[in-house]
Amino acid sequence: MAERIEQRLEDRIPELEQLERVGLFTRKEIRAVLRKASALEYKIQRRALRKEDFINYIQYEVNLLELIKKRRARIGYSFKKDEIEHSILQRVHSLFNRATGKWKDDVQLWLSHVAFCKQWNSKHQLSKVFSTMLAIHSNKPALWIMAAKWEMETRLSSESARHLFLRALRFHPECPKLYQEYFRMELMHAEKQRKEKKEFEQAKMDLGEFNYSEEILNGEMARIVYREASQKIKGVEFQLAVLSIAKLFDFTQDLQKEILESLQTKYADDPLTWDYMARRELELGSLQPTENTTKQKKVSEMAQREERCCAVFDEAVRAVPTEDMWKCYITCCLERYNRKTNSEELKQKRLERTLSVFSKAHETSLLPEALYQQWVQLLMDTNLSEKAVEVAEAATRHFSQSVETWQMRLQVLIQLERDDVTPCFEEAIKHVKSKGTLPLWTLWVEWSEGTNSKEDTEALYQRSLHATTPAESVTMKEMYLDWTYRNGGYKKVKKLFTSLCENRPFSLDFFRKMIQIEKEQESCKMLHLREYYERALREFGSTNTDLWLDYIKEELNHPQGKPENCGSIHWRAMKMLQGDLVEDFISKYTLLQTGHL
């Protein structure tokens, strides 16, 4: 092993001598490089190889390359690159090859090698990396796409890119993304050939042996890809994705027409098809030239386009009366309403249309729960508060067991300061199952704190502890403790704490809150703090290291503390803590002893 390392270090000598000779490095720096290289070489020549050692070695060489690049720029020296950089690049490629050969499944390692090749323009080496990587990771479509994209965009070889896509499709015959990118590549190839032909014609050059097929120029290869994909991949999403790619190229009108016809024929009952056809009406008008037109005319044209869009949606909800279809319609209306416009008339039209669509969807009982919330929010924003109350009530009738819907209705009533808030809370609790009612109870007590008397609020807190599930009652206990301290003082909160401790479960924050309250008192007693810590440790002593450390700190720093108790607390912590928490506790305790925590 030593002979091999010595040989590799000797191989470095010519490049290092060149670095010194041209003034990029000093002799002292050359020696430091050799020492570092020697240490790194020994690490990658061991029997038990570690990936981190290879990564560190590669990173060191990359940093060295970057340093040489900066120093060349600083002194303006650009010669001897073959003798210096080339040998370092070859060494990095060799290290990457060894690492990827050893850890073949590490995709990130392969991608690091790809990134390195791109950064240092190693095209020939990158071609080899892609070839080897795809042979091993042929099950990852994203890697095939990356390789094909590089062939097309960097090497300008559409033939190689096509070959890669065809190979990839043998492994993944039903991958939508592969077909989409293959389709895009063929259109890019056609566009490239069209530009070349146009430049030749403008220069009045004889095309001679350059034979440009009209079929390829018109995107016939992309059409073949599309038809092949359509037979294997079903679903409107793929059709729309391909159509959006085709629209990026100005010579694909016939192809777009074919995709649209296929979309309308095969997926006439899909809401996404109707959604696309309706939104298309918004774009059709905007394709016309709009120069020398007044603002009023632009507003009028926009209003007409939106009318046509809504006409298609109206037809859609009659043909496909589903929740998803109404959702598409309403989403489009909301998007149009939220668009900025200086025309108050257009803004009002959009609002009226949106509210009308919400009402129609509600009447057909096909309005999704989430959209009721958006409807109510829109009504509140436009000061239609009475209508908002009606809609919120209707929503709770449709979704009587939904906590979110009841919460929305209650928030509306609270915001409007209505008198029927309490009856509404009672109705909500009656309809919703006990599990999941925590948001309602927290909203109720928060509202009560600012509205009702202390007695009523306390009674509500007591009721919530019994009405919620044990897991949810934990939050209510914390809120109850905090409210009692703010409104009743220390003695009352201490009494409540003792009372609440009789019924599990608890949260750590519940105990920490009581500890904090005790610390805020002028006559903070260590006796009480010990009681709270002991109670907390009974519940969380086996899973929380910080609790033990805080207890120890309290004994050390409190005027009434007993530092001699720290030993027994440490011993108990070592016994109670589980698994890796013991080591965590030991390290933190050591830091505490040395004054670093």
UniProtKB/TrEMBL annotation:
Record has Acyltransferase as a keyword: no
Swiss-Prot/TrEMBL keywords: Nucleus, Repeat, rRNA processing
Pfam families assigned to the protein according to its UniProt record, in alphabetical order: U3_assoc_6, UTP6_C
GO cellular component: Pwp2p-containing subcomplex of 90S preribosome; small-subunit processome
Coiled coil: none
Gene Ontology molecular functions: snoRNA binding
Residues in U3 small nucleolar RNA-associated protein 6 N-terminal domain copies: 9-91
Top-rank taxon: Eukaryota
The keyword Hydrolase appears for this protein: no
Domain U3 small nucleolar RNA-associated protein 6 homolog C-terminal: 307-577
Subcellular location: Nucleus, Nucleolus
InterPro entries: HAT (IPR003107), TPR-like_helical_dom_sf (IPR011990), Utp6 (IPR013949), UTP6_C (IPR056907), UTP6_N (IPR055347)
BP terms from Gene Ontology: maturation of SSU-rRNA from tricistronic rRNA transcript (SSU-rRNA, 5.8S rRNA, LSU-rRNA)
UniProt similarity note: Belongs to the UTP6 family.
The protein's name in its UniProt record: UTP6 small subunit processome component
Species per Swiss-Prot/TrEMBL record: Malurus cyaneus samueli
Organism lineage: Eukaryota, Metazoa, Chordata, Craniata, Vertebrata
